[in-house]
Amino acid sequence: MPETRGQFSSKLGFILAAAGSAVGLGNVVAFPVMASKNGGAAFLIIYLFFIAFICYPVMMAEIAMGRRTNRNPVGAFSQLSSDHRGWRLAGKLAIITPFMIAVFYTVITVWLVVYMKEIATGGLEMLSSESAFGDIVARPTLFVYLLGLLCVIFCILLGGVKNGIERLARVLMPTLAVMLVSLTLFVLTLDNAVAGIRYYLVPDFSRMDLSVVNGALSQAFFSLSLGMGILITYGSYFSRGDNIPQSTRMVAIADTSIAFFAGLLILPAIFAFDPNTNTDDLSTSSVGLIFSFLPQIFLSMQAAVGYVGASIVAFVFFSLVFFAALTSLVSIIEIPISCWIDELKLSRKRAVLFQAVLLTLFAIPAIVSLGISDFFTNFTSYGGVTKSFFDLVSDVFYETILPFVGFTVCIFCAYRWKMSGLSSELTRGDSDYAGSRLEAYVNFSLSSVIPLVLLLVFISTVIQIYFP
Ligand code: PFF
Fold first, then answer.
1. Most exposed residue of 10, 47, 176, 296, measured as fewest CB within 10 angstroms of its CB?
2. pLDDT-wise least confident of 75-84, 168-177, 225-234, 284-293
3. Ligand 1 center–CA 53 separation, angstroms
4. Cβ 25 under 6 angstroms from ligand 1
């Protein structure tokens, strides 16, 4: 007997799960760093503009495609295009992209687990040394952590949409919010924290230029998990009678609020560590910031709360980042699984096992590419730099391809599925949508400005990374 397709139990279940996917390393680390380097509140203003006027329509379009077809991205593109080969290919891109993002995100999550273990066993001081990160990513014991993490993730995914993904989000998302607010309140009591707040919230428009605007859009897109096939798949688990425009707004607000709070946590912490911090010197990569810089900041808090106190603060912070990463990771690994279930007609159990094997096969070269294996560490070179297998996956699938997938979604909705199809899906569960100003804006922007902007961002990123 065929299994019934998974579904979220309620609108709230969907909102929490989609927010769980959206809230990830992008919010808790990348956003604060970008905001601080690029004019504080000035960056925030453009970021909010992009969330509202560019990302929101794309988000609704992805969710509507999934809900209309009740399928994964390949199924959704092919059903709505009556099996057109080119569009099916676009659907495949929306499966390969999350598949590969999961590979390197898994590796980062493994590092987070190792850091939590080290902090819990008194190793905060060791983690603050300059060579710590390099040593940790080259430890052969990472394999053990990798297998442990994959077992946890795939057990959650075996539970399915309601009992696995949704239940995880119901527990972890509120926990994450409480941890974030408590840590922020604590950091705000430290000396010089106010300098960080001032730095964060006073707009400095002089730093704005085209690359900052480009970065803000890419960050907004990434942060909402767009272009990864996630929202198409989650849309397919969303009940027909529920309101897409309103639920989408809630997810975007939750995601942006967490990013904003993370800034209120990280910048004051940095300024409490060194009131003369020059934010230009902050690491450009999220990875560098979390794993190399933040342990030093936590260690410095021992002057105020002792070594054990500083270790507790660090542990809570790394757990928070780990929870954010785990909910995102579970959401992204679900995308190929839903594809195997729909397209290969596998049972959920078989699809999960199949995906577990595939992910392990790809995660191994990624995890050994930071020193364990020479071959994967010096895997290739482009843009004048030697790149590891990990860098390659991150550059292609994380940094570059998302706006392109977003572009295909817009063009598909506007010119193949047609706006009338999108509108009729968005009107289900929201009778006010038809004829509203929102509908007029979505129809206009998705067929013109948004795809154009996404294409430009894609082209400029390709030039920056591969032909600097
Ligand atoms: N929105 C996520 C973030 O901000 O980190 C993006 C994401 C990345 C989702 C990786 C899922 C994932 F596996």
1. 10
2. 284-293
3. 21
4. yes
Long-range contacts of residues 72-76, Cβ cutoff 8 Å, at least 24 apart: 72/229, 72/232, 72/233, 72/236, 72/335, 72/338, 72/339, 72/341, 72/342, 72/343, 73/229, 73/232, 73/233, 73/335, 73/339, 74/339, 74/342, 74/343, 75/339, 75/342, 75/343, 76/232, 76/236
Q: Mean pLDDT, the chain, as a whole number?
A: 93
Nearest CA to ligand 1 atom 13: 329
Rounded to an integer, the average pLDDT of 247-271 is: 94
**In angstroms, what is the span from residue 309 Cα to ligand 1's centroid?**
30
- 91-136: per-residue pLDDT in tens? 999 999 999 999 999 999 999 999 999 999 999 999 999 899 999 9
Helix 244-273 and helix 419-427: axis angle, to 10°?
90
Indicate whether residue 286 lines ligand 1 (CB < 6 A).
no
Read off the pLDDT of residues 10-64 as tens digits, 9 standing for 90 and up.
999 999 999 999 999 989 988 988 888 888 899 999 999 999 999 999 999 999 9
Architecture of domain 2-466: Orthogonal Bundle (1.10)
Per-residue tokens: 83: 């099996």
Domain boundaries, the chain: 2-466
Ligand 1 lined by 101 (C-beta under 6 Å): yes
